[in-house]
Batch of 2 targets.
Target 1
Amino acid sequence: MRSTSLLLLSVVCGVVVLSLITVHPIHAQARAAASPVQWALAGQVSSAEDGPMEGVLVSAKKAGSTITTTVVTDREGRYRFPASRLEAGQYALHIRVAGYDLEQVRGVRLQPDLRAATVDVTSGRTTTADLKLEKARDLASQLTNADWFASFPGTDAQKGSIRGCTHCHTLERIARTTYDADKMVSVIERMSTYPQLSFPMKIQKLPAPRIGGGLDSPEQRLATWRRQADYLATINLSAGPQWRYQLKTLPRPTGKGTQVIYTEYDLPQRTRQPHDVIVDSTGMAWYASFGEQILGKLDPRTGKVTEYQIPTLKPGAPTGILGVRFDRDENIWLGMQFQGGIAKFDRKTETFQTWSLPPELNGPHVQINQVGPSRSYVDGKVWLQDAGTYTVLRLDIASGKFEVFEPYKIPRPNIYDVVPDSQNNCYFLVLGSEDVGRIDAKTGAIKIFKTPTARSGPRRGMMDAQDRVWFGENNGDRIGMFDTRTERFQEWAVPTPGAWPYDATADKDGNVWTGNEYNDRIQRLDPRSGQFIEYLLPKSTNVRRVFVDNATTPATFWVGSNHGASIVKLEPLDAPAATVFEGARLITGEGNAPIENSAFVVENDRITSVGRKGALTAPAGARRADLTGKTVIPALVDAHVHLGYRKGLSFTADNYTRENLLDILDRFAYFGVAAVLEAGTGRGDLPFQVRNEAWSGARYLTAGHGFAMPNAGPGVPMRDAAFGVTAEAEAREKVRVLAANKPDLIKIWVDDRNGTVEKLKPPLYRAIIDEAHKHGLRVMAHIAHLDDAKDLLRAGVDGFGHVVRDRDIDAELIALLKQRPQTFFEETLWGERQAIYAAKPAWIDEPILRDSLSQEEITQLAKSFSAPITPEQRESALRMLRNVAALNAAGVKLGLGTDTGGVTGGQYFGIASLVELELMVKAGLTPAQAIVAATRNSAEILGLGQLGTVAAGKSADFVVLDANPLDDIGNVRRISTVYMRGVEINRAAMRAQWAR
């Protein structure tokens, strides 16, 4: 513990508790006899001074339960508990509002200590309890640490010198003492012998001081203690029974800060300090005790807690865990503090594996607080930090060897957190300065970056899917972001000064969350607008690590009450952001006649209703978007592309990086493509990693590695991406390996490429198809020959990535397809564009090409149409068009697939998808049929039920066009705006970025 921390008197609860209420049950409003009750408990909170009171927290806890539910009063002072949150039973009610208690009223049942009242909640009814407030009898017991800091006299330096006291206890303990300065010196000296993991319920002794900051002479320490003691004696009760300053409180929550519901889960023992809380993909919350060798698992559905004893590495040293983080497989890694090591908990086997620092690095001062395992799959290494020496370390998991990195010479600033990027380079946050540092994973080179705010104190943070570090600036009173690609910072000052953010984390919706030890408030930032929402927590909560669960909509926030032995879940109840789009011609993607003068409603990321303008009821407060004169179509889905190899005019495997993949997905989104399938040319684990992360561009699906004969799959430089198989057992084993990553489809190459490679043999593709189906996976085949298509259909193939090119389709193939109506074709006519057009097409000169392509790329594309076309090539192209027409006439499912990014597809991501519709029309499809193929059918092929049509319940992914594509299919290229997941794509910003 720092020498500034004090451990003094027993805690007085900072939550205002309910004294007396008026309670009367009423029947639910009867919309219908069988209508369910919406609210279990409701009422109004008011006072003589303020009337109806907004921003009062009302908590309800059932007798015998470990779960407390809290809601907040709205502008009219009303609170409501949903019936789904409170089952029938007896509940204790508490409130939190600074400056008020409950007024004495008659006719209620009080608990013996008069600190809470009980209410009976009855199934099928709404119980109402109107609460009357009066001025608080003991305002000091309600103050947060931030309130005390605002109330204390003194300079910023004097107040800053005691900020560390809150690590272990509240400032109220200090303010209520009667010690004079001399006595305070001895108390501070005693406090300096406790580590930061001590608190009143669990006291431990510091084994040795830290050495990273250099030597601190006894005279300097004593002088510092004396200055602190002198100041503390001016703010406590040493001079009399009353404080010599006015007590101040922060304002109550308002507006969106009241649109929230909290659930608090008690932990088994009061000594549990859930410093870090994280939630896995099954919804289980995991925590570790800051002062004990305890790892816990909470089931939020039942409140059940399961605890595991963490091994002790250094008997006699302080116990407890600080950092808790997942690796890719959601195994849990722990920073073991004074135990001098890290631990991994395997969730499947429920066993621990530990690694201790070697003796020469493992002195009594060692304190391994943080661990960064999230990218360990890249190179088998885990980053960690030692708060005793202020150094960064790296563990080689396989060998158990540790490396030490020393970014600074002693005396060093406090290096607090380690955050790996997508390549497992380490970014470290330096609380003792304004630095964010980088350690290159391959070379070990260290680079330091300075935040715009001096002495900002970056403390803890996370790396998002775009390799941006989000962190709390614990001394700068800001949220910080460092873009590791551009090496630029951005900062946002918190709305209530004195919050001193500890940590920051970004959610799937682009919001960033933070919290702190001081004001019991959680801040949610929208970085795009710079707007914050502040949520007041139900109880005094010593906030440290913050976490969001992105599996919910909206994202759910989790935090440990580090001194309250509980875990808190915060669910925003944002009113849906509704927009009515009206006046456009709407082509829904179902193949029906368009809806003229249409209207459809988008709420958040979903379409909620579709109809005609004037006949559709809009939600209250919805904004309106006038699309008169425009045409709306569903966003496209391109179910056959090859990503990562193309970058400008370059075509190489070296381009296959996360950054390039994300850029290409943005390019597809720019042209109105909502999703793509990488068709069998993925490299390593990267495509699955990107698929499973959140990003702003098109949705990314992948077949991972495809299958072919050895060195006979896709064209160079993609050829080595496919599994080369020669035996049935080998083929089945490779399918099982691939299935572990849950690919969205399996791709096979059954093509000899005009006799240049060996074609995948029938026994092999039969084994692949059979094994894939056992794992619930579908198989798509690259083909060129009619006979291969027929045999693959007999083998059970699910679809084709190209159309038959060697002969005209015959009746036998059509008959086989009618037996398998779900079989699909992706025509990939774009690959034969030169032979189909036979001359430079008019769209080459359209301005839209310049939006994403350089002049060199456009010139190359234009020149390709001047290349000589042989009669054989022309006939092959015409045959393809005839075969597409035949498939369409037979009712076979046709989808959009362009092969963009491959050998013949080129780097024309997105624009090729739009031209493909024109090529479909050249093959005989009507414009309406081409749109259905490119939207609904392709979405169905990829199993994306939320995409493909503009209909109620679907994701709000659509394209606004300036002209009607039913008149001229080329009008799909006349894009006005694009919406993905209900948000307009910033196409101007994309163009500006690509122009640089």
Target 2
Amino acid sequence: MLRVVLHRLRGRPGLAALSVLAIALAIGLATSVPIFAQAVNRAILEEELGKLEADLRRSPLTVKAYYLPASTSPFTAEQALAALVSMQGIYERNTNLPVEHQQVAISSSALMLKTQQPGPYGPAGAFLANASVGFLSDIEQHIAVTSGDAWGAASSPQRLNVWMHEAFATELGLDAGELYELQPISSPAAIAVRIAGLWAPTDATDPYWPASPNSTLRSLLLVHGDEYTALVQPLLGTMPTASVHWALHLDEDRFVPELAGRYVEGLVRADVEVHQFLPDAKLDIAALPALEGYLERLRPLTVLLFGFSVPIIGFVLYFAAVVSAIAADSERQVVAVMVSRGASDGQIALMALIEGALLLVAGTPIGIALGLLIGRLMGYTTSFLRFGALSPLNVSLAGLNVWLIALTMLISLLARLYPTLTTRGQSVITHAREVGRQLKPPVWQRYYVDVLLMLPTYYLLRQLARSGSISIGKWQSSGDVFSDPMVFLVPAFFIITCALLAARLVPLLLRLFDRALSPLLPVTPALTLQQLGRRGGVYTNALLLIMTMMAVGVFVASMAVSLDDWLADRIAYRIGADVSFRVDEGPSNITAGASTLAEGGYIEQLDPGRWLVPLQDLEAIAGVRAASWTGRYRAHIPVDPTKVDRGWFLAIDRQTLPGVAAFRPDFSAEPLGMLMNRLATHSNGVLVSEGYLQRTGMQVGDPLRIWVSTDGTNSVELNLLIVGSYRLFPTVYESQYEAGDAAARLQRAEDERDTVVGNLDYLMSMGGGVATYNIWLRVSPDADLQTLRRGIGEVAPYTANHLDVWTLTAEEIERKERIGVYGVLTSGFIASLLLAAMGLLIQHRRSLEDRLWRFAALRALGLSQRQVVAQVQLEYLLVLLLGLTAGGSIGVAAARIFVPFFRVTTAEGVLPLPPLRPQLDTASMWVMAGAFALVQITIQGGLLQRALRADLFQVLRMGARE
């Protein structure tokens, strides 16, 4: 049996290679998702650990333990050293990371440093200062003895040699070689000490030090560890040690980020074991929160990307199943011959199983390697089918998901077996009858799967249209395109449903065209139309491949270009222009206009150019095209006849704002220039939002009285006139409530308050100037941002809160979720494109082989080879054009219907402004269609020429026929 299967595979090497590639693509795409998620989390973890190491100036894998013994439970130096050995074993056993080196630091409680004999400090026993005695392991490598004996000089039985910090000795006026005594506060017994030398740290910032050597350890008198145990500890009574510090440095070179779960579990177990013999010890492992964050991110990101990849993997598996069906269909004649010669159904199924298993064995390793490659390439994805120079990801096999690979292999195997099982028991005669006329439509047509799919598609579409999200039972999606895979699942249902319906209708339409037009057409197009009308069903799989591939590409490309443009719009709307910054230096010596008006005086209209940063100086900076003053100030605005609510007064310079503001035409019913003209007609004129007019019942032309604070403390009353309205205005975030919008049903934030847009010069005249204000700039895209910042600093030295669209856009593009989603969609589409091309290649080759008898008959009837070639090429071209046109139309319809529902919510779940404007990526659509058509036509031409080189009259004599 195995020999027969191997002979079949060797007989069709091209078909076997395409089948292996189809399996590899499906497995590669499925494995790339967890591999990419693992690589992203590893990059984040390494970045966090690197930052920790820079902040701590030590390895974040260092375990630090602190213990403050109580007098009721004395803790000796011997116990501290034994605890160090125990902790080393505990952490090595639980983490499988060796300890490179360890440290112990012990100090006594505060002792009174006194004179031993009369002298310049007073009589014998005079108090000098409080000090403690202690030791640190390996201290000799980190201190320099500046005077006195070298470190480690042995003490005498009568006197203890200690080394004092140089600064501490200078403060007390002590020197090396002098004799003193140390007395515990609660004991009359004293320790005779000799200042053997003075020390200073070689590097006070070295991570070796458990505390600052020049402050915390300044009053510590250093002794040798053995002498502390033998000479100091016996005199300290019930407090042999007052504080103990341990440090264990785990081997960073043996650390593997992918084993974070094992490390977290091991560190938690080690914590429990340490506290069993040191209940009051304090443990500090800087890397533990980072490792826990790694694990918390890993599963959600994997689930998110896998959720987005489910429709794409589904398409890929669907393509693989169609390719398998076409491949199995091309072998039906061989199977029929074997059945006619006595092969049982079990033997046929076993051969199909062996063949599928061999293909899986060959394709799975290739798929895993392909998954590693796809996972790495996904890290460079900036948008759909667009790549950029992003930070490379370190992918590894640690991210493999065995169960996901097994599931993909099982589906691929079933897709390979199913076509063979449906034709079991089919003899040569039965096969010949089916070749002559199509007896059965595809299984999905027989059971009306396409019609049944219309119901869930319509239900999900209706939910999106009503609430902007999807709810199933008590679960409800967020509607965020970068965190909610369900949003992409609905257009996937729509695309596959429309493709199946189109594949059902196209043969019927071709049949009608055949009956109506064939008698009127010349020979070649008539034969083409007859073939398509009478045997158009054989192209069902080909049409499905072309339509689905094209629809997915057009939809995803349009979604990507819409979201990319929305990203630019959102960032520009948030900033207000290309560049924005705040100027903190306010004007001075300006008479308050409000008080003058109250006294009946004349208000002089102030020119902002006299008091604010000159715009011409800013426009002289290289790269700056235009500049404008703006200001955002707290205000109290009436929201109904009896209530005043907090809001904002956005002060603008009406003359210069149109040249810099990021204002879209859909932001208002009137152009921005007309709105500015309305403000020019009345110095106290203001613009309010259409929502404010609806909520308050006010109209354009009504007076409005508000109170504005230009300095954050005092308020000025303004009597204004509403001269116009807007839907949206840059930097204005009013209430974002929408009926039924789950993503926006949140409490209004501070920025989401009613905003009145008015003239800056009027506000300055009435309020006595402004304390702070903003400047918006329109800047050339190729301007150097550092040069721009320096130029701004020279013109306006007191600035803050610098924002620019390019920096914020770059940060958003490097958002890992965005990269992952676009990476999944891009890799999935490329895989679908390759599988569609392979499926069509198999289909056309099989069709040509089956139609050799027809070609021979046509030649025998008098048609030239050119006419035969033209008929076949026209036939394939019509199928290709029908598939590309139908698929492109489905993709355009999906983009127009579903892209408006896509959103990217903020961290607080709020839908950002301005709203998304759906756009069609017509350029990519034509490129995809043209490239695919060109490749297919080229391949089809080659296959046709090869087929027609056969001896057609020999084929006719042998009787091979359709």
